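writing this on my phone so excuse typos. first protein, seq and then structure
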Amino acid sequence: GIGIREVLLTSGCPGTEAKCIVRVEECRGPVDCGWGTPISEGLACVKMPCIYIPPENRFKYVWKMLILNKTAYILPNDSAIMEVCRDTHSVTFQCETQENGNIIASVKYTVYAKTEMQTKKSRRTETGQSRRTTTDAILVFCLATGIIVTVGVIFAMIFMILHW
């Protein structure tokens, strides 16, 4: 296949991360290139690209909605990039890149539900808030120490000039 894939680790990641990238590698063998990363991702919508190399129009793109224990639903979208808005439940999409009727690459995306994204965002905000407070305290300490040292140096210089 063409393109790249991210090799993810799902346990043993640093901090509280549930998944972390181990490495990014080029897909050369099988057409199933794994899971992709959206181009843009907001609380409302997600933009997902198929795997392709320029020129984009040399390929045909088949987007599918994957449903657990059922046949995949083929979507009418045939472009290299698809934008979907979040629903009340998570949905997995797959894009097959085809050339001359053969599948040469395939990539999957999970679009999380609005509620899951809000939960993740609030968790990120909570952990970010505690980090921000610690960082602010360190910055205030450094600033105060710098001011005290500067004032001390100025007084020392004045003292040396007066007694010279």
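second protein below, same order as before
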Amino acid sequence: GGPRRLLLISNSTLHGGGYLGHCQKHIQSFLGQKVKRVLFIPYALHDRDAYARTAREKFESLGYGLDSIHESCDPVDAVRKSEAIFIGGGNTFRLLKALYDNRLIHEIRKRVLEDGIPYMGSSAGTNVATISINTTNDMPIVYPPSLQALGLVPFNINPHYLDPDIKRTHMGETREERIRQYHEEPNTPPVLGLREGTMLLVEGDKATLQGVTGARLFLRGKKPTEHEPGTDFSFLLTDSNPVN
């Protein structure tokens, strides 16, 4: 075993760069030299073969082999034998339903929280690492049996967080308003809004914001706060709901 190790990335592709290009150095630092192969979970997209080819090409260029779980005849066994897990982005509802359908929620939790293997998520893969997918931006195109997710951290994340554009005439709800509506419900945990180009590194009971843009933290009953890369978010790991 060992302490949990998570790299929770807001987005797979940053404007002007290729797939995982903006965070490839973070990935190499996170996985290190002990990991030889990564188990990829492409369930968030419909074309799993094409998705696996994209991910395999990238990880091989970084020096890691990649096995896609959809090519395995026994997904549970694939998770049990994995050295590291990477869940990619796409539709969060589709992803979570497939994790439930393949009986992988418990298995992934065990491998990450008890056995200490590294877990990487991007976008939807970051959403499902949290308590629930209540704060995803995606449409509910399928119906998972629950909105409860892997629970690798005791709070929620909103990947691709967008700030309000004061120049736009569109009068729809901003991301901040939607998160505030979520917090109008009782006993809702903190929500960390990760902007494009930002990621959260979790090592045991330490959580650090990394990347280039920053994040916005929403606590129920409090005004949201702004945070730069390098911020220590460890308190989110020890107190799942600091505001009742």
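The longest strand covers residues 198-203. thats all i got for now
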